[in-house]
């Protein structure tokens, strides 16, 4: 099994190496990149072979570590969230419990102080990844606080630990930065985010007072973060290194993500009930902050940026928050247009334009990016804010932007997509074969929940395809899911993805 662990380490080494090689120019840079991609694929395959050869279902030493790193290889290999990764995380959780990682090592003298601390670190990572992965899928988390008593690891450097030690040293103060301090600080917010997730996935409704109780807990958890890990201007991080900057940005993004998720159900009701206006404002503020963080991350990690070597760390966990923010702003703007409220919403439209510039860079490799950028185009086109001429042509893609949204494209309105009486169904319908594997839309991804409900397919797909879609809809009327149509200009085709509505 340790050979599989080694291959996982080699995978991430190759991924990090590609951060340097991607800066190469011409044929030399392309050759290096192609060689690295071959290595990455080979290492992933070798890890799987080692897991099978080592009989991972009969867990032993290094089994959980190898499985967890394999999960991360799959997570970093795909741009969009994958349902299979959530299934894999369920296996890892159960194997970890089979090995007793959910019980604190202090209950037995058979575990040395060193191994006990390593087990605490490992379990904390599993708890955090379970929550974030479940949130991406829009499903309940698998690990509950009542199921384990493992304590948090101490704030120690690796150099403070030794396999032969007879007792653990005193933890370092929070003024001393360690990787464990980041995990524990992020965990303070994640523990509240777990309550938010439980509330949003529960079949029972919560009172409005409970919403603000959780909001207060979030704010208190944020204020308890050590000063060294609180968000500052990126220019202040240069002396401390790129890791500290990335950690600070990640922690604040987690806070904004949790707050946006918490108040999102009241985004639309606030328009008819003044009691919910504070929630609407909080949700929009958090969404705008998430998009600012995403733009900062993109600018600072692009070639030539201060922290370009952090780019390999950006994964679908990050994109999840961006998709959530785009959903919130699109829904809010669309209701403004429907209600005839044409006030100054430049802050929201500018944020969406910036988000679309980022999303278009991933058009060819991310289904989520294609859907999000298309939704932005639909909403802004409704207000005659056509991003084709104003924004997309000025992106890093230059003239290629016209390929995505050419000027002769019909301007869609969300009336073509929205409708409370739309027959919702569970399974996605594939109307046209494509080169890449289609995946069910990832949860924030839940992404266009209630945003792109399809009521009319006329002018979007061919008649024969529309008939096929309607037949599938009628046969699955009883499922409470939403559908998202992806429209690509120049050809009429659609992939319909299904997610459960969080705004219903």
Structure description:
With 504 residues, this protein is mainly alpha-helical. The two termini are 47 Å apart. The longest helix has 28 residues, at 26-53. It has a three-stranded antiparallel beta sheet with strand order 1-3-2, with no helix packed on it. 53% of the residues lie in helices and 3% in strands. Residues 385-402 and 406-504 have low confidence and may be disordered. It has helices spanning 2-21, 26-53, 63-77, 83-98, 113-137, 179-201, 208-223, 242-263, 277-301, 316-338, 346-360, 367-382, 387-390, 401-404, 463-475; strands spanning 429-430, 481-485, 495-500. The chain has a domain at 1-77.
Strand-helix topology:
Layout lengths: L1 H20 L4 H28 L9 H15 L5 H16 L14 H25 L41 H23 L6 H16 L18 H22 L13 H25 L14 H23 L7 H15 L6 H16 L4 H4 L10 H4 L24 E2 L32 H13 L5 E5 L9 E6 L4
Helix pairs in contact: 1-2, 1-3, 2-3, 3-4, 4-5, 5-6, 6-7, 6-8, 7-8, 8-9, 8-10, 9-10, 9-11, 10-11, 10-12, 11-12
* Rg from alpha-carbon coordinates: 24 Å
Look at the structure and give the mean pLDDT: 75
The largest β sheet comes out as: 3 strands, antiparallel
Helix segment tally: 15
Number of strands: 3
Q: In sequence order, what are the helices and strands, one letter per element?
A: HHHHHHHHHHHHHHEHEE
Distance between the termini: 47 Å
Strand sequence of the main sheet, in spatial order?
1-3-2
Structural class: mainly alpha
Residue stretches low in confidence (pLDDT < 50, at least 5 long) are: 385-402, 406-504
Q: Work out the helicity level.
A: 40-55%
Strand content: under 5%
Shape: globular
